[in-house]
């Protein structure tokens, strides 16, 4: 499904829910292909090393957030990790902050439209884990 630029109103942040050190872009993509998603579910993926990997094209809907029909109005970013039990690497957060700033400018989105998956109305998930969601909350408060 096409995702028109003017329809991108939110950015949703996810965790892979697997130990960051054991998780690569290729591994998650393979898993999502196996599940029949046709591609990795996200537009961007940030590995434990902080390396940014490109998933879906930004002009294609993701399959990362069913709740509130978010897939048709958002981009999805996933960090390798299980953030109820481990913290994101500083280098992952550096990559995330810079990616978010670029996307906010490109799509003219304000910081309050960057949500953790669990913050999406009607979602029932732990994603993106406690420590990553706490980072998001404080990042949104920064000027
Ligand atoms: Zn998620």
Q: Top keywords for this entry?
A:
143 residues; alpha/beta; Lysozyme-like; 5-stranded mixed sheet; 5 strands; 15% strand; binds zinc ion
How would you characterize this protein structure?
The protein is of the alpha/beta class and 143 residues long. It has a single domain (16-141), classed as Lysozyme-like (3-Layer(aba) Sandwich). Helix content is 28%, strand content 15%. It is built from 3 helices and 5 strands; from the N terminus they run βαβββαβα. Strands 3-2-4-1-5 form a 5-stranded mixed β-sheet, covered by helices on one side. The chain is globular. The model has no long low-confidence stretch (mean pLDDT 97). It binds zinc ion (ZN).
The portion of residues assigned to helices is: 25-40%
**Category from helices, strands and their pairing:** alpha/beta
> What's the name of the CATH homologous superfamily?
Peptidoglycan recognition protein-like
In the CATH classification, which architecture applies? 3-Layer(aba) Sandwich
Assembly type: single chain
- CATH fold type: Lysozyme-like
- In DSSP terms (H or I, runs of 4 or more residues), the helix count works out at 3
| Radius of gyration over C-alpha positions, nearest whole angstrom | 14 Å
- Count of the separate structural domains: 1
Small molecules bound in the structure, each named once: zinc ion
Query: What is the global morphology?
Result: globular
Q: Enumerate the strands of the largest sheet in spatial order, edge to edge or round the barrel.
A: 3-2-4-1-5
Elements, N to C (H/E): EHEEEHEH
List how many beta strands DSSP finds.
Answer: 5
Mean pLDDT: 97
């Amino acid at each position: 499904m096409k995702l028109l630029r003017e329809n991108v109103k939110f950015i949703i942040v996810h965790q892979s829910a697997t130990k960051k050190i054991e998780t690569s872009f290729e591994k998650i993509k393979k898993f999502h292909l196996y599940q029949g998603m046709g591609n990795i579910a996200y537009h961007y993926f940030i590995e434990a090393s902080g390396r940014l990997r490109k998933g879906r094209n930004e002009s294609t809907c993701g399959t990362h957030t069913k709740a509130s029909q978010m897939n048709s109005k958002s981009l999805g970013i996933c960090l390798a990790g299980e953030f109820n039990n481990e913290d994101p690497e500083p280098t992952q957060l550096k990559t995330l902050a810079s990616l978010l700033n670029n996307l906010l400018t490109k799509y003219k989105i304000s910081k309050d439209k960057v949500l953790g998956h669990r913050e999406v109305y009607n979602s029932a998930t732990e994603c993106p884990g406690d420590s990553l969601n706490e980072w998001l909350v404080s990042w949104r408060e920064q000027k």
